[in-house]
From TrEMBL:
Gene Ontology, cellular component aspect: cytoplasm
Compartment(s) where it occurs, according to its Swiss-Prot or TrEMBL record: Cytoplasm
SUPFAM superfamilies: MurCD N-terminal domain, MurD-like peptide ligases, catalytic domain, MurD-like peptide ligases, peptide-binding domain
HAMAP family per record: MurC
Protein's name in the database: UDP-N-acetylmuramate--L-alanine ligase
């Protein structure tokens, strides 16, 4: 691995211009309408008709506006919210936040997920399978005040159709998030990869610094008492902002972070240009006087700054990639970060540390500032931490000396242990270390393999990869093969179809046959993978090996099962 060289300077010059934020308290409220003594959900949208200047009729009040009024009325009343697709990482967090806010919460999904455990413990009423009965209580005399729908749920879902037929307001996740975050200093963490870790790291640091923030993250965070949320009453709201289905286009962030940009969600975006177009729309949502914090190392993300427009005051913008200046069309400020010195903030002298993570020297505009130490491995986590530093300085440099702010941030970054399913240690037995990671895109697979090499430079690396969705595998098969070729041994399982039907000619077998270099094998079922690896490893119990299970599906069950089976065969107590 080649790390960037250290840049040194004798002086440090920090920008001082931060925009004063207008702070407006806000909370979601739903309206109940009483008709003849009963709560009635059959509220029809009122469409007021008026004549415009040309004499034609126009619709002045839309369905969206009616939903907005429902959101904002009767502020002292909490209602019943039903979440369709509640088992997913995104919607489960919104459901947990609604519980914390005092709402009655129910939800449904096609199968149980680990996110639903915490929701059930917190008081949510959960259903497996979608049915009209999930939304009816008291012999159908009581219905939800609103339903919120995951982006992964089709519009012909029975619960959506029923809600519309009886007048229950239906909110897609983007509209719900937009209303949820109004009135806050919204910090929206976007990007093709690294959103969950960056948002979690940022929220953890802010919380540790005493900021009474609210945060919603699409992953379980062991250091959050709320699992995947923090519920506070301050002005800052950290949100993992997902580009899938254009979900983040309903937001109006004060600060937008773009960690990187890649061709991802190939079932939604035809190519990388389509992804860029959606991100450009997202950047247009940044509030005037707000801030864009962007990874300058990512070619895709950096291209968002060079879209044929030269920001005011810039020099050689499209040429030598000199450091971007602070203003973009007098709309919002820009800060870049990365591992190269043309960025405003960059990491130099990146090196492994004794905690299994990374140390580096933080630099600002070419000047060394302080050494940073992380417990979590990988250059990608160095980049994530740089995004956090740039964001916190943006938020608080007008409240305390920047050097004090950075020192406090450094302390909390050092204590951050990561999130679930991101290079998560499952267990160790003799010379075998078992880790699990959510990586399901070639860029992510390559990054986590690199992190494993960093932490365990002298161990063999056996990767078990479960492709996630047929469309992604078909579009990126060669990239997956290249990324997996950096392992010492590869096992490819059957495809985790998720929301898709097998209509592709490419599967796990074809991917395994494409990998050049390490021995690669296709084993379709996860139980057979466990048996195969348990037999192989138990025959050489002191073999120095790292088993890394990768994928966004149920591959996460392999690690614990393998550890149990190895302990049983080797007669080791847990």
């Amino acid at each position: 691995m080649k790390f960037p060289a250290l840049s040194t300077s004798k002086t440090l010059n920090f920008p001082a211009n931060l925009i004063e934020k207008q702070k407006i308290p806000f909370q979601i409220f739903l309206r109940k309408i009483s008709v003849q003594g009963k709560t009635n959900r059959s509220v029809k949208s009122v469409q007021a008709l008026s004549k415009n200047n040309s004499g034609s009729i126009s619709i002045a009040t839309t369905v969206t506006e009616e939903r907005d009024r429902l959101f904002d009325s009767l502020r002292n009343e909490k209602g019943w919210i039903h979440f369709v697709g509640i088992g997913g990482c995104g919607l489960s967090a919104l459901a947990m936040l609604a519980l914390k806010q005092g709402y009655e919460v129910s939800g449904s999904d096609i199968e149980w997920s680990s996110f639903m455990d915490g929701l059930q413990e917190a008081g949510a009423l959960l259903h497996i399978g979608h049915s009209v009965e999930n939304m009816q209580r008291n012999a159908a005399s009581r219905l939800p005040d609103a339903i919120v729908v995951s982006s992964a749920i089709p519009q012909h879902n029975v619960e959506i159709l029923y809600a519309k037929s009886v007048g229950v307001p239906v909110y897609k996740r983007d509209h719900w998030l937009g209303k949820l975050t109004q009135g806050y200093n919204l910090i929206a963490v976007s990007g093709s990869h690294g959103k969950s870790t960056t948002a979690s790291m940022l929220a953890y640091v802010l919380d540790g610094m005493g900021d009474n923030l609210t945060a919603v993250v699409g992953a379980h965070v062991p250091q959050f008492s709320g699992g995947n949320i923090i519920f506070g009453d301050g002005w800052n709201f950290v949100l993992e902002a997902d580009e899938y289905d254009g979900c983040f286009l309903g937001l109006s962030p004060y600060i937008a972070i773009v960690t990187n940009l890649d061709w991802e969600h190939v079932d939604i975006f035809q190519n990388e240009e389509a992804v860029k177009a959606t991100f450009r729309k997202f950047l247009s949502r940044i509030r005037v006087g707000g801030h864009l914090i962007l990874c300058g190392d990512s070619e895709g993300a950096y291209s968002l700054l060079t879209d044929g427009k030269q920001p005011i005051g810039s020099h050689n913008w499209r040429g030598l990639r000199s450091r971007p200046l602070e203003k973009c069309s007098d709309s919002y400020n820009i800060t870049t970060y990365g591992t190269t010195s043309f960025n405003d903030w960059h990491a130099s002298s990146i090196r492994p540390n004794l905690k299994g993570g990374c140390d580096y020297t933080l630099c600002h505009q070419g000047c060394s500032v302080v050494d940073i130490s992380l417990q979590i491995p990988g250059v990608y986590n160095v980049l994530n931490s740089l995004a956090v530093i740039a964001t916190v300085v943006t938020l608080f440099s007008d409240q305390s000396p920047i050097s004090n702010t950075i020192n406090r941030v450094s302390l909390h970054l050092n204590n951050f242990i990561g999130i679930k399913r991101r290079f998560e240690m499952i267990g160790t037995i003799y010379g075998c270390h078992i880790y699990d990671d959510y990586a399901h895109h070639p860029t992510e697979v390559s990054a986590v393999i690199q992190a494993a090499r960093q932490r365990f430079p002298n161990k063999s690396l056996l990767v078990v990869f479960q492709p996630h969705t047929y469309s992604r595998l078909a579009a990126l098969k060669d990239d997956f093969a290249n990324a997996l070729s950096d392992a010492d041994q590869v096992v490819v399982t059957g495809v985790y179809a998720a929301r898709e039907i097998d209509e592709q000619s490419v599967g796990g077998r074809e991917l395994a046959a494409t990998i050049i270099g390490p021995p690669s094998e296709y084993i379709p079922t996860l139980d057979d993978v466990v048996d195969k690896l348990a037999f192989q490893i138990s025959g050489k119990p002191h073999w120095n090996i790292v088993v890394l299970t990768l994928g966004a599906g149920n591959i996460t069950t392999v690690g614990p099962k393998l550890l149990y089976e190895l302990r049983r065969r080797l007669q080791v107590n847990s």
